[in-house]
Amino acid sequence: MRIFNYIYLKGDRYMKLSNRLLEIISFVPQDSIVADIGTDHGYIPVYLIEQGISNRVIATDISKKSLEKTIEYVRELGLEKNIDTRLGDGFKVIEEDEVDTAIIAGMGGILIGDILEESVEVIDSITHFIFQPMVASSELRRYLVKNGFQIIDEGLAREDDKFYEIIYAKRGKSSEIEEVNYEIGERLIEKKHPLLGGFIKYKIGLLDKISEEIKYKDSLKSRNRYIEIQKMRDSLQEVLSKIEGN
Predict the structure, then answer these.
(1) Mean pLDDT, the chain, whole residue set
(2) What's the rounded mean pLDDT across residues 219-243?
(3) Cβ-based neighbours of 116, under 8 Å, separated by 6 or more
(4) What is the pLDDT of residue 3?
(5) What is the pLDDT of residue 2?
(6) Residues 6+ apart with CB under 8 A from 2
(7) Secondary structure in 3-state letters for the chain
(8) Which positions ≥6 away from 213 have C-beta within 8 Å?
(9) How distant is the alpha carbon of residue 50 from its chain centre?
């Protein structure tokens, strides 16, 4: 069962936020103007306004049904002047220089890269980017490194047995990183994140499961994939040994 944190707002109102959402919010700069792409229920925009982190948030969603939930929630709290709701795809409903911070959470890493690719001019006018890929985080890191982003910081959140990765990035030239750090963010290792050990063990467990499924297959593709997986497993185990040894 997902554990929520009860956050008290103004008066006697409160809202429920998961560990994942709170970790995402922790990277939002104070007094920033935010675009929450794929806002869903609008929890992040409401929290940012109610807690005085942002004065204005643009909440967008490609789903009319999801956006209607946000509109209703914003109206219920009387925050229409602070939260602008827009129906649309990615950054296509955001103007250049309209926001300084963008959040894209709850989507796959490849889709996040596609969204960024579709609106380069708007992206170039934004300073802070906070990504929370549900899958394909390594693919997202590759995209960022190759397409003019610097990964500044990273975070982890855990809910039940699932881990969530958060990537905070800015525009800027990035040097190539070691292969293992596409899988496990370098910043997580540098800051010795308290969830990192469990996260690496989780990753190793996934690799072991895939290995068992393909190790007896005779195709060249399967054999090559098995070798790749074992190599990554060894790299992850090496990182785990280092952090557990400190």
Answers:
(1) 92
(2) 93
(3) 91, 123, 143, 147
(4) 45
(5) 45
(6) 18, 159, 160
(7) CCCEEEEECCCCCEEEEEHHHHHHHCCCCCCEEEEEECCCCCHHHHHHHHCCCEEEEEEEECCHHHHHHHHHHHHHHCCCCCEEEEECCHHHHCCCCCCCEEEEEEECHHHHHHHHHCCHHHHHCCCEEEEEECCCHHHHHHHHHHCCEEEEEEEEEEECCEEEEEEEEEECCCCCCCCHHHHCCHHHHHCCCCCHHHHHHHHHHHHHHHHHHHCCCCCHHHHHHHHHHHHHHHHHHHHHHHHHHC
(8) none
(9) 22
Percent of residues, the chain, with pLDDT higher than 90: 82
Note the pLDDT tens digit of each residue in 133-164. Answer: 999 999 999 999 999 999 999 999 999 889 99
Give yes or no for residue 196 having a pLDDT over 80: yes
Q: Tokens in use for 227? A: 């070798």
Joined together, the tokens standing for residue 5 give 């944190």
